[in-house]
Amino acid sequence: MPNPFINAQKQLKEVTKYIKVDKKILEQLMSPDKVIKADLKIKMDPTPHEASSGQVRYKIFKAFRSQHNNALGPYKGGIRFHQGVTEDEVKALSMWMTWKCSVVGIPFGGGKGGVVVDPKKLSKGELERLSRAYIKAIYKYIGAQKDVPAPDVNTTPEIMAWMLSEYEKLVGKKEPGMITGKPIELGGSKGRGVATGLGGFYVTERLAKVRKLNKEKMTAAIQGFGNAAYWYAYNMHQAGYRIVAVSDSQGGIYAPTSAPTGINPEGVLKHKQETGSVVGFKGSKKISNEELLELEVDILAPAALENVITRENAGKIKAKYIVELANGPVTPEADEILAKRGIVDLPDVLCNAGGVTVSYFEWEQNNKGQRWSEKKVYDKLKKIIDKAFDEIWGVYKGKGPTSPRLRGIKITPRMAAYIKSVSRVVEVVRKGGK
Predict the structure, then answer these.
(1) 12-45 per-position pLDDT tens digit
(2) Which of 69, 122, 176, 318 has the smallest count of CB within 10 Å of its CB?
(3) Number of domains in the chain
């Protein structure tokens, strides 16, 4: 499996072919400012035998927090609980977060956290103890003006509430802005749960507009059916796009002839809640996640984990457009292949930036003591995503002084996004902002 941090570094090096970056600044940006590591010792629930004998059992969980760069503002990034978490993955995600915040123009830098754990194997009590232990390990390095965590893979508003509670206990004061993705009652923002998928939908709508695409005639396949994937699918379906395939970790479903309007995401969600998987949804055919990626569709949205489109399968991708809802789903080698084949790949740093944008709204509301309506959140999100898309598309199509196309050099949308975002960060660092 390709190393995500090496991929992230390759992407940054590639940008320097098109914009000037001082060697010292490049070295600084190639690695995180700080990586915090910890072994979390958690008391586990006793088995019947342990309970009767008075035995106490502990388990160690490896944990990380990567702080990449804070030139534009406090570090910002989610915390994931997943058995596949590695230090390099967390470092890569923190770097991508720096570019993502810069792409949409919000005042945050990049951070990311993770714990090596399968949360499905923990009781609720064990999960709470793990969440609180994680904050105990990193609380000195985080805060509303230092580093603002958020939910990510397998973490929830409830987990954010436990983490906020632990942090405020440790620092001895109320500080709701130190973490986002909280329950509404504790200062969470309306629209946060929908934000990542909705942001990806806004990107797709903008693409359809600039390319003059007829959405009613367009088909889409979505790899994944988690929160971001569901809300992307839901909004796409509502807008008239035809969803023909979705998937989860157990496999995918393909329904090319199920209905004139395609798969109804609400029906699939109900089926998944009842059975535990999207597989077996009425009127659909079971396919693998690998097969889903290679379907002949207009839009492919990889919305699961990183490195799913690689050198090995990039030549088999038949979609005309890729909307990256996951972080790092396309490797640098695959990027080149897709570009040569004329496939327009819209990058993760734009497509899934809706989540961090509404996290910024939550942070702003907390710091100002405000509560915004859902409509205000969505309107502000659309305005920011549309502006970011237009800026990136402009660089991609040769408009603006930073576009390599003005020098006759063709670039990808990802490179356009990186040129825009890295330039912003480099300029602030160069002027003494970091």
Answers:
(1) 999 999 999 999 999 999 999 999 999 999 999 9
(2) 318
(3) 2
Band of pLDDT at residue 380, cut at 50, 70 and 90: very high
Q: Is the pLDDT of residue 217 over 70?
A: yes
User: What sign results for the dihedral spanned by CA atoms 212, 214, 219, 222?
Assistant: positive
Domain span at residue 236 reads 195-351
Whether residue 339 is predicted with pLDDT greater than 80 in this model: the reply is yes
**Given the residues 76, 91, 112, 190, the one annotated as active site:** 112
Place of tokens 């740093």: 349
CA 250 remoteness from chain centre: 21
Pairing state of beta strands 321-323 and 299-302? parallel
347 vs 188, 201, 301, 325, 335, CA distance in Å?
A: 27, 13, 11, 8, 10
Question: Is 41 within a domain?
Answer: yes
Residue 245 vs residues 46, 60, 215, 299, 350: alpha-carbon distances, Å: 43, 39, 16, 11, 23
Q: What is the pLDDT of residues 269-319, one digit of tens each?
A: 999 999 999 999 988 899 999 999 999 999 999 998 778 999 999 999 999
Confidence (pTM):
0.91
Does 28 map to a domain? Answer: no
Q: Is residue 417 part of a domain?
A: no
Return mean pLDDT, the chain.
94
CB 99, CB 110: distance < 8 Å: yes
Active site residue 112: yes
CA 123 to chain centre: 26
In this predicted structure, what is the pLDDT of residue 434? 59
In a domain, 429, yes or no: no
CATH number of the domain enclosing 138: 3.40.50.10860
Cα gap 228→194, rounded to integer Å: 7
Half-sphere exposure in the Cβ direction for 186 (13 Å, CA): 20
Helix axis angle, 374-396 relative to 354-368, nearest 10°? 130
Lowest mean pLDDT among 138-142, 264-268, 395-399: 395-399
Please check whether residue 307 is in contact with residue 1, taking contact to mean a CB–CB distance below 8 angstroms: yes
Burial class (CB in 10 A: 0-12, 13-18, 19+), 408: exposed
Shared-domain flag, residues 271 and 321 = yes
| Closest to 63 measured CA to CA, from 78, 77, 81, 49 | 81
Q: Is pLDDT at 89 greater than 90 in this prediction?
A: yes
